[in-house]
Design a protein that fits this description.
Elements (H helix, E strand, L loop, with lengths): L1 E2 L3 E4 L13 E4 L10 H9 L4 E4 L9 H14 L8 E4 L1
Parallel strand pairs: 3-4, 3-5
Antiparallel strand pairs: 1-2, 2-4
Length: about 90
C-alpha cells in the first residue's frame, strides 16, 4: 500500500492481478480521509483488485458533482481502463 498526499492506493501482489477485475474506489464522507480505509486496501488488493481511496473535503449533496469530476480525473491519471468501477460510500 502507498499513501500519497491526496489518496492511498494498493495494487495486487505480483502474479495475483486479475485483468478482468474492476478497480475499486473507496470514498469517505465528511470529516474523514482516504487513509480511513487503510485496513481495507491491502486485503482487497490481495484478491487481485486495484484499490484507491482518495481524500476529499467532504461528501455533501452540493459537492457530489465536483467530487465525481475529481474521481474521474484521479482514476484516469492512474491509467485505469474503461472497466466498471465499484464505488462504496462510507
Amino acid at each position: 500500500m502507498r499513501v500519497h498526499a491526496d489518496y492511498c492506493e494498493a495494487q495486487p501482489p505480483p502474479g495475483k492481478a486479475r485483468p478482468d477485475a474492476p478497480a475499486i474506489l473507496l470514498v469517505h464522507g465528511f470529516g474523514a480521509f482516504g487513509d480511513h480505509w487503510r485496513a481495507n486496501l491491502q486485503p482487497l488488493a490481495d484478491q487481485g483488485f486495484q484499490v484507491y481511496a482518495p481524500t476529499f473535503p467532504g461528501c455533501v449533496v452540493t459537492v457530489v458533482a465536483a467530487l465525481l469530476g475529481c474521481i474521474t480525473l484521479m482514476i484516469a491519471s492512474k491509467g485505469v481502463s474503461h472497466q466498471p468501477l465499484r464505488i462504496r460510500w462510507r
